[in-house]
Amino acid sequence: MISREKLRKFLISPYTVSIAFFIFFVAVYIHFYYHSASSLVNEANNNYLEGERAQTVDVRKNSFNKALNAFLKLEDQYDPRFGNGILYYDIGNTYFQLEDYPRATLNYYRALNLRPFDENVYKNLNIALKKLDLPPLKAYSPIEKVFFFHSIIPLPWRLQFFFITAFLAMLLGSIYIWSPFEKVKISSMAFGALAAIMLLSLTFTYFVENPQALVVKSTNLYRGASKQFAPVTDEPIKAGTKMTVTQVEQDGKWLKVTTSDGKVGFVPSASLLLIF
Length: 276
Prior knowledge:
The chain is an alpha+beta fold. 61% of the residues lie in helices and 9% in strands. The radius of gyration is 24 Å and the shape is globular.
């Protein structure tokens, strides 16, 4: 049993007080963060609903453009890469209503990175791909879901899991210093190991993994970083095609990419937008 005196010292220790203040300030920040975003969300949703109910083409287009502007303001002000993917899904739906299928596809892919098990995102993405005359995206197999968690679990989930497990490892380690129980030590080491695994996954994502991009404007795949080079393929790469960026050339004007079927070449950077 932990004595009252040891418990009192632990609760008033600088370490515990620092953690309490950190949690308090995070809670306050989150409260004001969501409160300030709510007005733009309501504006965007109301305009989107007006577009769905519109009786004329002009009113419909105008309403969806207003909704899109509000959603894009939210994207600029609040980094949705670490959110739940709903904003990207809404932006994708709005682009789809405006018949901008490449950008709809781009935002569905972004939403899918954050909502990998959302059937609605899969459904809408495949509808947009069909509009672009591209093959549908296959769902993850059960084996992929189990053994390839790194490429499936969203980045925000991995970040949260890392901080939670690291926090619990440090907390239990501190408790062990005051009360050296073996079970506390084992639990601290287990959470530390999980945190280390997540740290390796995050390190790979940020420093090793090549970014994914989407063609938003049909382009040829060239053998070099100039249109003077011969194309790699007979046909241009269709808008909506996903590829991996491996190198930046000529101050960002050209990108070296690899297609899903293994072809390597160069495309103008203006033809691509990064998924993440």
